[in-house]
Design brief:
disordered N terminus; 8 helices; four-stranded antiparallel sheet; single chain
Length: 569
């Protein structure tokens, strides 16, 4: 080889001009633009001159070595040349341009890759993540049953020792069977995840490949991966004590329920665009747990509220004039200064993904569209040269696109909720049927959320209550804490609702979160996640709870209910 070719690497094969921009895919020759015509003038064989970056996108016909494949036979599912197309072998077959077929196949690969990465693979990860929860519930249930057995055994003394040991042995056998079933499920999911991971890697290579035969040979496996493993429905054993009667000791002691394991098909993970359906049941889990912690830039006692932009990104506000967007890795995605330079008093995200915040001092409600801040509600008024009127405390965006704003009166300190459609006032909620104020006066912390059934829920720290009215503004109930509790006085702060219609509210006095049903009945506490001065709340689309922790400046993502499959749209 000429020494200059080795030094310059690429030169035109005809005139040796360095850096040729063209390439003949048939002759495998580099060409400058000036030499393309001369090269094409050689009519002893076919040529296909392409920009250098597209070299390798042509293939020679395996049956006619001097021809290139420009067509794709849909009947035979192979690339062919023009000579093949006119042969008897392909008589009556349908052809399309080869590049159109390549482009179409790459689109299929892109869709399949998107489905695998965004839906099927995350769904399997969610199922896998729920297995430790199942195992923990099993172990926790077994511990509780063992404790109950021991307590009952102390009352019956030696007469029932044999029975106790027998029941413990039965429980251990059930646990072993149960754990074996869970292990089988985990092994199957792990295997599928491994296959999907390899498949994703292979498809990404195909997307970056110009090898016609490999891309053309691609066959989608998404139908195979789309069918998720059966869902286990496990009925945990229970222990039923009976009144002690020595003569009928063995009959009256009680027994363990039989092991019951059912499987339910997950079904197709793909949903029909625009289809409406009721959300699947997501029962509460026995022990909520922290999925992740975001260490924000806020110092302790500075972060106040959160609102979910998506399952992966969360808007936050503190006691400064900046609004910050974080991802779940704790990375600051975006920051935004308020229009007035005042502290934002509350924030929410609309269904279309726009950020809305209240400015208490400026008496405005503002929306952020494409980084531009627009004032949608202005409550400023003037009397005797002074500003007066109402100030916005908190805000939430409704399912209909309206804004619900909690207002505080300038002089009488009364509180009311106003529904706005854009800048237009549509509804005022202030009094019950007897003309009594629904909410406590003054600027004490009040947060607002719309429930699934369109109820309007306000956490009123001044009244130490959660006040819930229906869509028409009629009082439904007031929650002041569970009727029986060992905790101190209830003082609500942040509030949120989930897809099941449950209401979640911070109890700032007791460093925990109350979970209620939509009718105000207490269901459970979240008090095991080492919460330090929790305040702001929001719930993402998968019913994970996001908590702003004032005591540490952290944001915690907590799983408190059973996961269900995702729906790709």
């Amino acid at each position: 080889m000429d020494e200059r070719w080795a030094q310059d690497v690429l030169r035109c094969h005809l005139c040796e001009t360095p850096g040729p921009p063209m390439y003949c895919d048939i002759c495998h020759m580099y060409l400058c633009k000036a030499c393309v015509g001369e090269h094409l003038s050689d009519q002893s064989k076919e040529h296909k001159v392409l920009p250098l970056e597209k070299r390798g996108s042509s293939s020679k016909c395996p049956k006619h070595s001097t021809k290139i494949c420009e067509l794709y036979c849909k009947h035979c599912d192979i690339p062919i040349c023009a000579t093949c197309a006119s042969s008897d072998e392909h008589h009556g077959h349908k052809f399309i341009e080869l590049m159109k077929n390549i482009d179409r196949n790459k689109e299929v690969i892109k869709r399949d890759l998107q489905e695998l990465e965004n839906c099927i693979y995350p769904e399997l990860l969610d199922i896998a993540a729920n297995i430790p929860v199942q195992r923990a519930n099993l172990i926790d249930n077994s511990k509780k049953l063992t404790t109950a057995m021991d307590k009952h055994g102390e009352d019956l003394h030696r007469e029932i020792e044999t029975m106790i040991e027998k029941l413990k042995s039965d429980l251990e056998k059930i646990d072993l069977k149960h754990l074996a079933v869970i292990q089988l499920e985990e092994d199957e999911i792990t295997r599928t995840i491994s296959e999907i991971t390899q498949n994703i890697t292979d498809m990404k290579k195909l997307l970056n490949s110009n090898e016609v035969s490999r891309v053309s040979a691609y066959k989608s496996r998404n139908d195979e991966f789309r069918k998720l493993p059966p869902k286990l429905e496990i009925s945990l054993p229970s222990f039923t004590p009976q009144k002690i009667n020595k003569e009928r000791l063995y009959q009256q002691f009680g027994c363990l329920s039989a092991l019951s394991i059912e499987t339910k098909e997950h079904g197709d993970t793909m949903g029909s665009p625009g289809a409406e359906s009721s959300p699947p049941d997501k029962p509460l889990i026995a022990e909520p747990w922290i999925i992740t912690e975001i260490i924000s830039e806020y110092e302790p006692n500075k972060i106040c509220d959160v609102s979910c932009l998506s399952n992966e990104e969360i808007w936050t506000r503190g006691d400064g004039d900046m609004l910050r967007l974080y991802n779940l890795q704790g990375e600051l995605v975006k920051s935004l200064q308020t229009k007035s330079g005042n502290y934002p008093n509350d924030l929410t995200v609309t269904r279309s993904g726009d950020l809305v915040y209240t400015d208490y001092d400026d008496r405005t409600v503002n929306i952020v569209k494409n980084t531009q801040i627009q004032t949608v509600i202005n409550l400023q008024g003037w009397i005797w040269g002074l500003t007066w009127g109402w100030r916005p405390l908190s805000v939430c965006s409704t399912s209909s696109g309206d804004l619900l704003v909690v207002m505080n009166g300038e002089y009488d300190q009364k509180t009311k909720v106003i529904r706005y459609s854009g800048s237009t006032e549509k509804q005022i909620i202030e009094f019950d049927d007897k003309g009594k104020s629904l909410y406590s006066p003054g600027g004490t912390t009040k947060n607002i959320s719309e429930n699934k059934n369109l109820d309007i829920c306000v956490s009123d720290s001044g009244a130490r209550a959660v006040v819930v009215v229906n869509q028409a503004g009629k009082l439904r109930f007031i929650y002041t804490g569970p009727t029986s509790t060992t905790k101190g006085n209830f003082k609500p702060c942040g509030i949120a609702t989930d897809s099941q219609g449950r209401i979640l509210t911070v109890d700032s006095n007791n460093q925990c979160i109350h979970i209620l049903d939509q009718d105000g009945q207490f269901l459970s506490y979240i008090d095991n996640c080492h919460l330090q001065a929790p305040r702001g709340l929001c719930v993402d689309a998968r019913d994970n709870l996001i908590v702003a922790e004032v005591g540490t400046g952290k944001v915690k993502k907590i799983q408190y209910c059973v996961k269900t499959k995702c729906v790709c749209r």
